[in-house]
Amino acid sequence: MQRSQYIIIKQMTSAHTYWDTIYTTKNHEKVSWHQSQPTISLDWILNITNQNDAILDVGSGVSTLADNLLEKNYQHLSLLEISPMAIQTMKKRLENHLGQVHFYNENILTFQANIQFNLWHDRAVFHFLTHKKDQQTYLQKLKQHLKAGGYFLLATFAPTGPKQCSELDIVRYDSNKITLLLGADFKLIKTTSEVHPHPDGSTQDFNYFLLQKT
Predict the structure, then answer these.
(1) What residue spans of the chain are helical by DSSP H?
(2) Distance from C-alpha of 186 to C-alpha of 101, rounded to nearest angstrom
(3) Residue 32 has pLDDT above 80, yes or no
(4) Which of 3.30.210.10, 3.10.129.10, 3.40.50.150, 3.30.200.20 would CATH assign to domain 3-213?
(5) CDD domains, per this entry (predicted)?
(6) What is the value of pTM for the model shown?
């Protein structure tokens, strides 16, 4: 699909349809955010959680993070994804582990569940929220569904990263900007950077933040 076609889709359809179109029409290994191995996220999760902790992956797409955690015998994974196609792909791929994984085919801004999580993971969703109202709605959901003492593992484009992704504007973050936005409800534990290889041969700068709910 050409650039001009994506722009038309973006303008004429909802976010739900837009992302489903991407997962339907593009090779999942060729989307810009694809990782063959989610090394930083996986290492951090393994260091701060145990196999019985409830973990939510926001914007899970078709990431292998869930596969990797299931290999480590994690029992309570939840995958939230706006694209039905991505959810169906994951259900098929993880069909032998459906008792350990709960799927939410939802927009994070309208997410509601009777559960609190020990860890909330978000790689490359939050930075798509360019309006303050949407950012605040997201943070309300985070505070509602994350246990006291729970961890927020967030990855966004760094200030040196791109200004757009998949033809959509994004917000770039450093540690000062994200801690100011989250306020006193969260304590920054650590941060690191990553140079992510784009399928077209270029690179994208990401920042990772690990925060704990106070």
Answers:
(1) 3-12, 15-25, 39-48, 65-71, 84-93, 132-145, 175-182
(2) 27
(3) no
(4) 3.40.50.150
(5) AdoMet_MTases
(6) 0.84
